[in-house]
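Hello again,

I reread your note about wanting to compare the complex against the isolated chains. To keep things tidy I'm splitting this into two emails, and this first one only covers the full assembly. Below are the input lines as submitted, including protein chains and any nucleic acid or small-molecule components. They are followed by the predicted structure of everything together. The single-chain runs will come separately.
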Amino acid sequence: MSMEFRSILYDSIEYEPDNWDIRAPLYFPDLNLDQIIGAILAGKEEYRLEPFFYRSLKDISSINYRLDVMRDVENPDIYNAITVFAAGMKRIREYMGFSLTLHNSLQKKKWLLDAAGLYCETVSVLHAVLASLHIGSSGLRLFCDWLTGYLGSDAYKTLYTDTDSLFKEFGSIRYSVEIEGDRVIVGEDRYCDDYCELMKESFGRINDTVFDYSIRFFTDVEMCSLEGRIIDIISDMYAPVFKRLDEYCSKHLDFMDRTLERFVREIQFYICFRDYIKKLGRSGFCFTYPSVSLKKEIRLTGGYDLALAQKCPGLGAAIVPNDFLSIGGERIFILTGPNQGGKTTFARTVGQIVFFALLGCPVPCVTADICLIDNIFTHFSVEENPGGNTGRLKEELLRLKCIMNNMTANSLIIINELFASTTSNDAFKMGKRILDHFGALDCFCLYVTHIHELAGINGKTVSLVAAVDKDRGAARTYRIIRKQADGRAYANSIAEKYHLTYEAIKGRIGT
Amino acid sequence: MKPYLLFEQYKGDLYHKIPNEKDLAEDLNLSAVFRAMAQNDSFIHNTARQVILCSLSDTEAISYRQNVLKDCLNNQSVIRRLYDISENIMEEAAFYKQSTQPSFSRAVTVSYKLRNAAGLADILIAGLETLRSTAHRYKGNFKSKGLTAFCLQQETLLTDDFFIELKKYISDLGFISEGGRIIIGSSIGKGLKGTAHILRSISNRNADNKGSKEANRSRQSGTILLDNISIANNAKEVEEAGLVHILRLLNRFNESVLDFFDTLHFEAGFYAGCINLHNIVKGHSAAVSFPVPDEANKRNLSFESLYDLSLLLNEQRQPVSNGLDTHDTCLYIITGANQGGKSTYLRSIGIAQLLMQCGMFVPASYYRANVSESIFTYFTREEDESMNSGKLEEELKRMNEIISSACRNSLIFMNEPFATTTERDGSKIAQDIVTAFYELDVKTLVVTHLFEFANLMFVQELQKAVFLRAERSDGGSRTFNIKEGEPLTTSYGEDIFNSVMG
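Full-complex prediction:
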């Protein structure tokens, strides 16, 4: 009997989601993860992979289990073996569909046989190829061992033998259809001439261009009435073969193994992510395997925003990568700087990298050392819609309270322009109280704000600034650096609004 | 299957349209030549025009045609017969196609198309048989590679067996319209759908009687009566699918044979035209000879008793002829008396060169020249007296077009270039252009009134240049002969003035 294999996505039963009807986490839109997951899953809709992206992993071994499989899939031979297998399984499902939905009962049975035939071929090819390759991950190794056991099982061997012998019997049938006036005569094909071939030999003396003269008719999957009648006659002529088909179907109606069905879906998680990496790789964007540990720090170098990257194919060099380094006990990071300086992009970048690391996926940066975060929280305001609106402030505070109730010392919270609807003084006071709370909790916090005074509330906060290039008239560099906040952000944004910055003027006059 | 009468190999665009063909035909008076060749056959007229204006620059290809033409001149009736056979077949086929053209209102079945294609094939096969017997009868008459191979091809390809096979298939196909029997062999594919269909036979319904047929079947078989519309339509679909490749095969055969006859019609038509012209010229007892083409990189021009063919054809009398013997020469500057025969001289060379380069005989007792990869005429139409300054720009535009398509091995005839401006300016422009041609080794013949230009060129003592002059007898009357001589200041306009006024 074959050994147990459950899942290529979960190394242990207890971490499998118990409810597949889960929804996207609340931070998805804030971090533009909905766009990113949408791009990753494009063309893979049939596999319903979204739930796998909605649930972060909760322990390090589960994360490494996936990362190891990801590394294996990076091997093109393994990747190809799996995609060939998946394509085969897709066709098998199509054949199974025919065997369920078509009307002619003989045809339904033959489709089942055809599905099983393709199944045996697909599975044995996958096994042969995987067995010949070096596999590093415990996930794929366990699957291979299971597959070896399955192919050696009596159930599979019987399926294989029955399918193969019946295939050969059908394969040896040649029948002829004679059309003669008002009747069609069906019989055994006792002829050996190919009329087209013979005629071509004669007429080809004048013109010997070759062409494909395979004959095609009745191209619909469903049989037409004449086809049905022809098959009725053939089933009489070859009654024993059709009787065996009957027996075959009642015996092997449910031939497909559940483990393989599950595997072909779950492995797509790796395939689609690999495809996504390759696509961005062609535009010059890199990924790395994150290292997730219990050591409480987040150290990212060369990170970039995936949503931005996938929108800008070919701009790999133009997107500025940034670092996020928590040194020692640093937890609270206050990010200030000019509008359009890359603050929101940076906030999303950090969130995305942590998110994908917790999912057991490669992450969009050069190096990533991340502690096991138990949850990500975000609070992004809609910058484009400011105004003194007390209803909105209340709504913000309610959401914040809900987040604060669920946070732990191992959470990451990303806040982008909180309290935009209040006066700066109020925003400073409220912001300080919230930051004090986070500080006491000892969680990770990235706080994007235009209230630069918050950056200096105490010695424990780290001040980050979206840097400008002074030599070029305060042009944006999109580089986020550790620097004392100075509040210069605003002067520049007014000039920008009227297109009167150094660069803008140069650009306008230059033309 | 191809006739190979005009070409030993068919490669690329055989009759590519040259941009300046209209100028060539007009400047060299070629219409007179085309008319003489056609003798009121418009097809031959077009053929002659197309072939003559599309020069060969490969001396081998030229001698291939020359040899075929020599055979044709010795077997005039055979060539006319090939022309007539192909013409008849083309006409018959066109008539058949037209009469079997289906009305657009109804859907045309494959079997209907097949019947028509078989009918057309019948006509074409009959044509091939006639052609084969003609080739068989006259094959001994020919010496040229082209016509010998043509006859051999007919003999080897169109054998009796071949005709018997073709006719058998055509008659098989006849059964279809009479409700014959079609057998298709198939295998069982996925979902019991038929696959690997092979058309086994098409036969007469009564080919073998029912009894023996049943006996032949080793297993029991079943019969399906086509007793309702839907199942009858299904059967029709099978039949049509089985026949569609037969139709394609037959259509390809028909197209190829039609294409062959079309080409033969064209090629035989050209030689028929050559025969017509040859007989006319001979009728005037004028000289004709097969020219000697030299390779394109040579710069030769020699001839004896060369005359302007268009003048002979138009005036029905033998015009003045000239001789020349030059080697390694790429520039010819012709000056001399007005109406002294300079343009005629230029034209006589142009016509001879074109006729040589299409494989024809030339109007001279001897003609030898290098072939040119492209031939250009740049004539100021003598008739056009209304010259004004706007014309110069027009002229330069034309020169620009020529230069953009010319190459080192081109041949350029210039007749009174840049006469649309002052002599000084015209000479300067002409000198620049002609010097450039000379240095590039482009073969150039220039008739000019521009003494300043001609003299500027003359005093340089150019190695590869020849200066020719319209001859004048001592008494001042023109002989229309062109001889070597340095440019003279006057063009004897005074002579003409005298002869008109005096």
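For quick reference: Chain A touches chain B through 63 residues (CB under 8 Å).

B.
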